[in-house]
Amino acid sequence: MDPECSQLLPALCSVLADPRQPVTDDTCLEKLLDWFKTITEAGSSLLLLQENPCLLGLLCHVLKPQDLSPRVLAFSLRLAGMLAAQEDCFQYLQQGELLPRLFGEAGPLGGAAWTAPSVRSGWIQGLRSLAHHPSALCFLADCGAVDTIFSLQGDSSLFVASAAGQLLVHVLGLSLQGPAEGHPGLQTGDWPVCAQKIVSHIEESLRSAATPQITQALNVLTTTFGHCHNPWTQVLWVRLSPLVARLLEKDPVPAAHSLVDLLLSVARSPVLSSSSCGLWETLAQTLSHLSPTQAGPLALGILKLQECPQALRAQAFAVLLQPLTCVLEATAQAPGLLDSWDGTGGASVTVDTLLASKAACVGLLCRTLAHLELLQPLPQRPSPWPQAPLLGATVTILRLCSGSATPTSDAGGHLCAFLVGCVRVQRAALDFLGMLSRGTGPRELVTQVFAVLLEYLTSPDSSPTVLKKAFQATLRWLQSSPETPGCSDLDPHAQLFLRELLPVLPKRLCSPCWEVRDSGLEFLTQMIGRWGGQAGFRRALLASEVPELTEQLLRDPESYVRASAVAAMGQLSSQGLRVTPASPEHPGGQQKSLLAELLHILSTDSEGFPRRAVMHVFTQWLRDGHADVAADTERFVARVLQVASQDLDWEVRAQGLELALVFLEQTLGRPSSHCPYAVTPPVAAPPGPLAQALRPLCRVQLFEFAFRALFDCDRPVAQKSCDLLLFLRAQTASYSGPQGSGSVPEVASVEAALQRWQAGDQGQPLGYLEPEVVVAVLRSMDLEGLRGALAESSDRVEKSPQSLLQDMLATVGALGEDEADCY
Amino acid sequence: MLDCGLDMTSTLNFLPLPLVQSPRLSNLPGWSLKDGNAFLDKELKECSGHVFVDSVPEFCLPETELIDLSTVDVILISNYHCMMALPYITEHTGFTGTVYATEPTVQIGRLLMEELVNFIERVPKAQSASLWKNKDIQRLLPSPLKDAVEVSTWRRCYTMQEVNSALSKIQLVGYSQKIELFGAVQVTPLSSGYALGSSNWIIQSHYEKVSYVSGSSLLTTHPQPMDQASLKNSDVLVLTGLTQIPTANPDGMVGEFCSNLALTVRNGGNVLVPCYPSGVIYDLLECLYQYIDSAGLSNIPFYFISPVANSSLEFSQIFAEWLCHNKQTKVYLPEPPFPHAELIQTNKLKHYPSLHGDFSSDFRQPCVVFTGHPSLRFGDVVHFMELWGKSSLNTVIFTEPDFSYLEALAPYQPLAMKCIYCPIDTRLNFIQVSKLLKEVQPLHVVCPEQYTQPPPAQSHRMDLMIDCQPPAMSYRRAEVLALPFKRRYEKIEIMPELADSLVPMEIKPGISLATVSAVLHTKDNKHVLQPPPRPTQPTGGKKRKRASDDIPDCKVLKPLLSGSIPVEQFVQALEKHGFSDVKVEDTAKGHIVLLQEAETLIQIEEDSTHIICDNDEMLRVRLRDLVLKFLQKF
Predict the structure, then answer these.
(1) Interface test with A, best of B294, B392, B398, B465 (most A CBs within 10 A)
(2) A608 pLDDT above the threshold of 70
(3) Contact B420, B395 (CB under 8 A)
(4) C-beta of residue A83 within 8 angstroms of C-beta of residue A41
(5) pLDDT above 70 covers what percent of chain A?
(6) What are phi and psi of A681, to 5 degrees?
(7) Under the phi-then-psi rule, with left for phi > 0, alpha for psi from -120 to 50, and beta for the rest, what region is A638?
């Protein structure tokens, strides 16, 4: 510990021990504990105590009957536990009987402070830290802590209850660390007393009729099997699995969610899943006993397992598919391949659940669709994957939701009544439909998919979120549709769909709801990015009103929409899809250029999003050599950098640096590639051409922009600028100007100006700089040092322990002063 | 009578009434029978395969055959759309009763009627067709004329004089005001949330409650929200006036309306919105107020053309107490509750009584025109349809759900302008009805038959019907339905002095009884117990007051008895009074006490006691008095 901190610590301890000076900020105490943790992890706790007797004083002091705040008491318990984690320190504290007084019956346990959840939590966390050596186990047994932990499992505070469960798992693991690890065959009867006590408690809880107790036991076991993969866990499972299996005999199965978690935790344990301890049978039994809603997560968990018997996987998949089978049957469609997966005979239960109530139906379908969506991309997903029936079921669900399906049975009628207009199911089904685009399907079904998507995109009843999902799913399906051989254009089917879709898009772009306009524009941008070069798409797009409307949305009142419109217009223009018709406001077709319009947005828009979007578009344009930019690149870069340098949004300034870097690369060549086959650009240009090459950079005042950014108050901007200048310096390494660097008088004045900038006075511009001056200034600057300083977090000073102690003392001191004033 | 609506769909069978001579309409060919007989060609004209009556439009009146409307005492009006037939009833059927409605209902109803009369009267048509109504001829006509019902009862529009006379019979009421109807029932209007001043009605007696729910909305629009709580505990809830387009969500439709409007105007086209001069138009204007800037439509003029446009826009601003909470609070700022005031102030919205006059000089295109009538058969809308129908740049957007837009457009075919159907009906849909019924829990629901089954075109949509328990009782046209409750109790008031004289006796804990001797006085369906007249004083003279002749004689009544006889104590009392040899036998219904010596038998049962003795009246009286000692008398 620093001597400065050692000096401050006694004062802080006395403040903490003083009930008249309450610590109001919990985070300070947390930070203090973090600090102690780093100290104890790095060195001896005993030494820490001996060197700082005030800590011991604090621990002794909190035991006195007084009106101490629960925060400080909890802190002290946690600190004591942390210190006692090292056995020698534990013994030292034991000598003074301090630990039993803190954690035993005589401590806060029996007092009024115990009513505060933070004290109970501190007690548990203290013991959790303490329990790291065999002596600790004896201590726990002696002070009767295990029984208290048992009771805390049912604590009214969920945090306390959860921590108690975890502590129990930790103690069990600790007690078995020595004996059971040495002898994996050791039966539970031979386990240490403490472990036996815990196991008996779990058994008792599992036998209990009360669901909360069963849940507690199952949660402890879930954590145990999830964290401990020692051989003794197998012995434990063998002993407890009959009790777990017995839970399935009850109707309804108690604590089903916790049971599922436990079984999956066991199945994932490398120790248990490989052995034949009846696990697969239990899982199969559980699948058939749980209700469809409860069985879904278990089925998904089973299907995610790397290794698992094929029959069980088939059963699990059948459980997952059942609701969709019911949907297909209810709408008088052949379930197709889904039939072959249905081997559990639980269909009637699923139908009952689906038709029980709207909430049950919606919940089950949403969960099923979400589970299948998670399963679809996994390599271990069931094979053959029933792509076609799944597509059919999803399309049917979407049509039931929109009211366009025509169910022929009573069950179908009920489903229709439940699902019509249900946004939750629509969202889940559209997500899953999008995911299904990864696979192929029969042409007829794909047609149906596009038809249902078009229905959703057209329907005035589609909510903004549903519409967004429909756009996303549409994009995915369009991307997955096969390209016409040899033509790299969309296939005729997709083209037909586009022809129907494009008339819908203008209506969406005119929607009174900004979210709809925004998602319409995002969709458009992605479409152009993907198919902007293809003739069929270009024809369809140019024949629609979309490009014109998009341009009008640059003036939308909603900033998000303006930003999306900027991105879309950037794409349209890049692909040569911007139309410039003669309009009443611009007779003769002399429309304002998009570049000017975007520059106007960059310099005047009051919101950051559109300005950032403009910078992205400009950077992309520069990179791609957009015609408007290529006409006069220097002028373009100069104007953009000038506007960006004055922007209040740091992201705009940072993007300005990105643009500057692109310009730099285009002027000087890319940073050297490490690829051995790449053509290596010259490491450094010879003096003459380099000076010439630097001249355009000087003309666009790139250096002024970069130097200003170097001292930017926002660290990411400064870092980016530093990187850019370092790259530039590397490029000019071999350059030696006509005169020696530093001999130019301008260099000194630039350096002086930069120093003023660094000090915060950025008023004076640098003006035009000669390449030689720039190179000299770059060489004279300690850019590496600056980069190092910027890499450190900005609160490095404030985060130091000394600062923390000072802050805490100052806060309390200030409180004291206030009191004095008041007095 | 509940409501008094007018079926205006009959007008769809007629040719439109153009404001100025329309060569197209006047040159339509006459219709002739298949055999070439052209005797109807003056009355019927053919347009794009449809046949129309070339005459002044006529309306289908409420059923007048089933009951004699002169016997109707009261008409309760729910909203201004449901009173359009009122002049036909009040002026031509001998109706002498009272009509109850809220003030905005009457004022806006007057505007609607005034507009209707104005639309029809300002283009007088000399020709009146009646030949086609002959039943034998009607059979020969093509659909839909062939299938039109009760054409003989169709009537021309009423006059302004009749409107004024009808409106003068209306008594204004406020929400939650209790109105006594002949002492028999009390009626109360409640806010229904659908339109300014729209009401549901509660009709209740002391022991029965019937709710009439018509044209209600749970959406947050301009009117005061629907009062649901007061509908609770109804014996019967009569439910009508649900949305006509249950599949169209009003929010989605408003979005469609705005998008299509913007697209048309951006392309240089005009937008025509056929509408009523009040109601949804307020919400549409509010929506456009927020939308036009975002859509870049700030420079596009909006025109509202109706003979009552000005009154409608101004009335809406003054009915503060009938508005939703947000709008009410604006009034106290003070600000106009509706933003159309600002639209007018900034010249974005202009209103005109007709397209003649100022409008002609102000008219600028592209523009948006709101005008009537939504049937497209009369009003300024006819002119705009003729004017703009030929260009595909223009769009007509239907927002009123009352008329089939395809039928409305039929006489304008072929039509190049775009047609968009965005029906905005804010009235209850079936999901909202289910929630409402769950909340209100009436014992019985009565509704039109159409609500109890899915629409014929969407027979699978089980969600588009009323689903309640017990199932709703349905009715169809001209069907008489007995409501499932009987009046079993009447409330009777007791005069205070009579109440004072009562001496209640507690016969069981918490239950007291008292005998009442009084005169039941019934007048105006109210029943009052008054003290009985004092026994007539023996005057001794000949003169008796005339009034006392009417008072019925009051006999001195024997006291009523209650309680039960404890047998053991009764036996002890008998023995005390000298009866010996008393025997008690238990029977199925009670006990028999035998006095063997006296050859007397006392039969004690739960509700009677008999003393059977052999002609010994003295003994019977003694025993009776003994029995009475154990009973309470009052």
Answers:
(1) B294
(2) yes
(3) yes
(4) no
(5) 88
(6) -70, 160
(7) alpha
Contacts of A821 (CB under 8 A, 6+ apart): none
C-alpha to C-alpha distance for A71 and A118, rounded to whole angstroms: 7
Q: Provide φ and ψ at A682, rounded to 5°.
A: -60, 140
B200 three-class SS: strand
Q: How far is residue A724's CA from residue B276's CA, in Å, rounded to a whole number? A: 67
Q: What is the DSSP letter of B534?
A: P
Domain A481-581+590-631 CATH class label: mainly alpha
Please indicate whether, in this complex, the C-beta atoms of A545 and B267 are within 8 angstroms of each other: yes
Nearest by CB to A461, from B249, B287, B290: name it: B249
Look up residue A532 and give its two tokens: 């902007």
Tokens of A262: 């436990």
DSSP state of B218: -
Find the CB nearest B460 among A407, A514, A552: A407
Q: Which letter, b or e, does each residue of A518-552 get, where b requires 16 or more Cβ atoms within 10 Å of its Cβ?
A: bbbbbbbbbbbeebbebebbbebbeebbbbbbbbb
- Report residue A275 as tokens: 């052995």
CB contacts < 8 A, A to B, total: 77
3-state secondary structure of B612: strand
Is the peptide bond prior to B366 cis by the omega test (within 30 degrees of 0)?
A: yes
Per-residue pLDDT tens digits for B558-586: 777 878 888 999 999 988 888 888 889 99
Distant-in-sequence, close-in-space partners of B435: CB < 8 Å, separation ≥ 6: none
Q: What is the pLDDT of residues B6-22, one digit of tens each?
A: 999 999 999 999 988 88
- Tokens matching residue B533: 């007249």
Residue labelled with tokens 């373009």: A636
Q: Does an H or E element contain B202, and which?
A: strand B199-204
A403 touching chain B per CB within 8 A: yes
* B chain contacts of residue A420, beta-carbon cutoff 8 Å: 461, 463
The interaxial angle of helices A347-356 and A310-330, nearest 10 deg, is 50
Contacting residues of B for A506, CB less than 8 Å apart: 259, 263
Residues linked to residue A822 through DSSP beta bridges, in sequence order: none
User: If you ran DSSP here, which 8-state letter would residue B46 be given?
Assistant: E
> In sequence order, what DSSP letters do the residues of A709-730 get, joined into one string?
HHT-SSHHHHHHHHHHHHHHHH
Would you place residue A443 in the very low, low, confident or very high pLDDT band (cuts 50, 70, 90)? confident
Task: Give the closest-approach CA distance of A510 to chain B in angstroms.
Answer: 5
Helices of type H across A646-686: 650-668
β-pair type (B44-47, B492-494): unpaired
**Beta strands in A245-297, from DSSP E residues, in sequence order:** none
Residue A420 neighbours by CB under 8 Å, 6+ apart: A400, A401, A402, A403, B461, B463
Nearest to A516 by CA among B458, B93, B256: B256
**Virtual torsion, Cα A246, A250, A253, A259, nearest 10 deg:** -10
Q: Is the pLDDT of residue A209 over 50?
A: yes
Q: Vertex B367, ends B366 and B368: CA angle to 5°?
A: 145
What residue segments make up the domains of chain A, in order of their start? 1-143, 291-446, 481-581+590-631, 654-809
User: b/e map of B556-590 (b: 16 or more CB within 10 Å)?
Assistant: eeeeeeeeebebeebbebbeeeebeebeeeeeeeb
Three-state DSSP class for residue B44? strand
On whether any CB of chain A is under 8 Å from the CB of B61, the answer is no
CB distance B491 to B527 below 8 Å: yes
Per the CB < 8 Å rule, is B258 touching A516? no
Which residue, among A368, A356, A471, has the nearest Cα to A425 in the 3D structure? A368
Backbone angles phi, psi at B413, to 5 degrees: -75, 150
Range with the lowest mean pLDDT among A190-194, A524-528, A608-612?
A190-194
* Cα dist from A135 to A77, A125, A648, B474, whole Å: 18, 18, 61, 82
